[in-house]
Amino acid sequence: MGKDLLIGSHVAMNGPEYYLGSVKEAISYQANALMFYTGAPQNSFRKPLAELRIPEGRALLKESNIDENNIFVHAPYIINAANAGKPELLKLSINTIVGELQRTAGFGVKTLILHPGNHLDAEEDFALQTLAKSLDTIFETDGTQVKIALETMAGKGSEIGKTFESIRRIIDLCKYPERLGVCLDTCHLHDGGYDVDNIDALLQDFDHIIGLDRLLVIHLNDSKNPRGAHKDRHDNLGYGHIGFATLCKIANHPLLKKIPKILETPYFNEKAPYAIEIQMLRDEKFIDGWREKL
Ligand code: FE
Ligand code: FE
Ligand code: ZN
Fold first, then answer.
1. Could you report the average pLDDT of every consecutive run of 10 residues in the chain (294 residues)?
2. What is the residue range of 275's domain?
3. Structural domain count, the chain
4. pTM of the prediction?
5. Could you tell me if 142 and 210 are in contact, meaning their C-beta atoms sit under 8 angstroms apart?
6. Cα–Cα distance between 24 and 64 in angstroms, integer?
């Protein structure tokens, strides 16, 4: 069962190899899925696509039988299209997302993952309405078919989108719901108060409120904090409060078979943990003390 798992991790995209290097990194982990930022996650400065060695990266994907449906771009996380405080800042966030959708299309990737944003000093529902309006503008401007996967959040600070109901509300308010999907992050769900160990009930709840057909990708992370902590600090598989058994059960859940899983777990001793984390999920077997042996 674990053998045909669709699994990968966040990978870097740095010079001189850029996208070619990202794909090589994923292959070095034996991944068949991956996620990357098209520039620094903390800002919206972006190198022109022509410099990013995209054709070479795509050729290597093809050669390696990695389906581009299993690749995801993550939008920079500083943008806030739900309430930027000032109209000019909101416009900047909207423009950045339009640019990211166009860049995502330029990689041949079909899904952009977006944090819904922060309500700051506004009412939460007003922020959900603002985001839906921003998304309307974005989808009327970008000229692509790329979908946005709204990521469920931990509820840190004034983050919106920590409940299935709030994600449903955004989808309902948006004029182009066909362009919206969802990214479930196990650390965020757990920190937001959901019991991820009870995955059957959680998926039933998700299906009832949003619909399983909207689920496009799963971020598989352990959490450094107890359930409901609203902290959002990822941990390595088996080292946090969720635990390996639960994460492995989610990774290999029959209802989630076609959904790619992406690891966003931290480096340990400056080493990437992904090759071993992927192997353990495929084998459905935890290796005691694996992180210390990296
Ligand atoms: Fe994220
Ligand atoms: Fe995530
Ligand atoms: Zn997170």
1. 86 97 98 96 92 98 98 95 90 96 98 97 96 98 98 97 98 98 98 98 98 98 98 98 98 98 98 98 98 95
2. 2-293
3. 1
4. 0.98
5. no
6. 10
